[in-house]
Amino acid sequence: MRNPPLLALIITGFAVSAAAPYLYRLLKARFVWFGAAFPLTLFTVFMLRYPQVASGVPVRERWSWVPSLGLDLSFVLDGLSLTFVMLVTLIGAAVFLYASVYLRHYEEADRFFGFIGMFMTSMLGVVLADNMLLLFLFWELTSISSFLLIGFNHHVPSSRASALKALLVTGAGGLALLAGMLLLGNVTGSFELSSLYAMNDLIISHRLYPAIVALILVGAFTKSAQFPFHFWLPDAMAAPSPVSAYLHSATMVKAGIYLIARFNHEIGGTVLWQDTILVAGATTMIFAGLLSYRQNDLKRLLAYSTLSVLGTLVMLLGIGSKLAIKAFFIYLIAHSLYKGTLFLVAGTLDHETGTRDVGKLGGLFRAMPVTAVTAALASFSMMGVIPLIGFIGKETLYKAVLDVQPWGMLLIVLAVASSAFLVVVTLLVGFRPFLGKPRPELQKVHEAPIAMLVGPFILAISGLLLGLFPDFFVGRLLEESAVSILSQRLGIEIELWHGFNLVLLLSFVTLLAGVGLYLLRPFVLSRMEPLHLPGLVKPSIWYEEALAGMLRFATWLTSALQNGDLRRYLAVIILSALIPASLMLFSSGGFSVTLPADLSVTPYEVALALIIVLATALLLTSDSRLKAIVSMGVLGFGVGMIFIIYGAPDVALTTFAIETLNVILFVLVLAHLPKFTSRSRTTGRIRDGLIAASAGIFMTLTVLQVTSTALSSRLKEYFASASLPDGHGRNVVNVILVDFRAFDTLGEITVLAIAAIGVFALLKLRTGKTD
Amino acid sequence: MHSLILSTSSRYLLVLLQLFSVFLLLRGHNEPGGGFAGGLVAAAAYALYFIANGVTEARRVFRFEPLTVVVAGLGVALASTLPSILGGMEFMQSVWVNTGIPVIGKVGTPLLFDVGVYLLVLGITLKIIFSLAGEDEP
Q: Inter-chain contact A650–B32, Cβ cutoff 8 Å?
């Protein structure tokens, strides 16, 4: 059987996601099994490619899409991609299964599956795309689906604010990323990541290299919530628990890390690149660990520990040695498995007890044994207890950090300290709710339905299996991922047991320190209670200030330019067109007017000019609105007559129709206006008169200037001669409008349609009607 | 202020002006006219009818919701670009078919595009007029 193309899988993913809400309504309770089948099918189809990828031959595909922009639908499935694909689909299956029960009582559960399906497919797109612009496209789609999912409880204002915060931070990062990619594309002339491999020297010696690194890293750091962009992630916990488990711990926040790993080969290897990510990662790791200490909410505890781990992963990429890449790979998989599980466990606790406050939970082992065992397994992995995968991850992490010169000693202290904080989090989330005496207020709590137990349990068991047989399950993938990140194989086997050595000692120290910190926690927190951090050191305050400042600026600008006074609008429009245009007119090449030789006029022209001037005078001096409207109509028709005399019947026809309708519209508006009074003061009138006169003089001068220079353009001749043979029409004006320049017309009528909606909205708003 | 003469004549004028607007639309490619002017004339016809008989009556005679006509117009204009996309040509390159029928002659995508412009202009103008005029009504 031939494997389906990767593009087909992506398209199918989006199609199924679009259909998911309808299927949910159709299948109701039976949706549970369909929901899990969708990611599992994707998982299976991708696994068919495993032998090929494991043998060191990446799957490559390419379809042309927008060649003029360098945007191709090109995909690559190598070791790194496949690792992420497996995480995304496998955890996706657990989350889909879980969510279809968890969300049963939500009114809008149907659309949830559309959103999360869209997210899963976009995430697959991110890790499969070989074209940078395509990667960016999927990247933004994950931001948008994350926005929709964080704000899923959209009737709660804080939930909406959190969603907006995440969108603005990751969206701004996305823009930086796009800019970085465009620079990179300009420097190398290619947007294909695989073709950049060979150009590392060219890129890092280019003068734009620091800018490229900065922009791409801003994109990656915002997405992966690295300090100082970390603050959106804890707030994103406003999302339902399955979302937190899936997007905000196991997959989406790892997109930034994927990006760094993917670009490491192309633009990495320099001091700038390695040290920046090392410092950012280490800072995030330790600060997030410290911040997690004072949290009481199950999900916020997990969120801060996620931040800490994300920091660790970034730091490992910054170290960049073979050992560090190995640690990165194992830690990545271990974290996705245990953190996904723990978030789902937190969701189950919330679902069954109605609270996420660790202070109120306890003694639930008897009531929820399966959940308790699941939580314990995941917690042991997170603490780094043998024989789970987390243990190998931590061992390798310590080993890689110890090798760093010259900062190894400092980094190992930070790594052990932040791991100790992770231990505190696991004790609070994974054990404390289940141990101790059963609480009277939690008497009626019972175990969650089976569909909510299966997913987390399988993820937790996977952590154990991977720990026992690491080389069997992920050994080949590790080798191939290392090729993608470092362009060389590691040749290191993954083993569970390394013998008694310094690293094992450090693991014990970590556990002891964690337990110690846990026991000291009530005491320390009671001491810390009166302390308040000044707002200046919190990046979230920077964000809020920036947002508030932007809104203040927008309010000021609106009231300055659009204060509701029609004359102000006109003045702004006219002056902002007039000033730059007259600068152009008088500065470039000098201003010269040669009057046409023949200045004789016909009686018609004189009569028309008189009519127009008289109508204008009447308009300016009229003491009633009706009189003003009628004189404006006369003025318009006079202008239309001029078009007829000079042989532009099309323009004249349109002018007449417009003027007629104008008068009708004005008369209609008239009925709604208050009695006519002259409210403007003399100074205001003089000012308006000056603006109007200068606009008139400018137009006159422009016309004279334009007509007195001979046109070099041959457009007129071209249109006149091509109209009949190419456009099949004798009316040149019309052929230009609907054929030669039809694209312009299409834009104009689209604007008109939008204007119609605007008019409709304005009139409805004014009268306060709802339709 | 109800004028019997205007009211009666507007019924006939409505039909005549409609015909005239379609005439303008169709001849636009060779003589003065076109979708924009045609649409305006058609809108003026309904405006006249509205002045004579009131907005409720005018809405009833027009039958469609003006915004729907706007959408239809934009849709028709966009649809006229499809042949060029599907044919792999430059975007909006015109495609002509010789029907061989007398009077009608060649029919091409620019005509379809112009029909879209016609509908759009008609819909927008009527939307504005009806909205402004309809405010007093409950």
A: yes
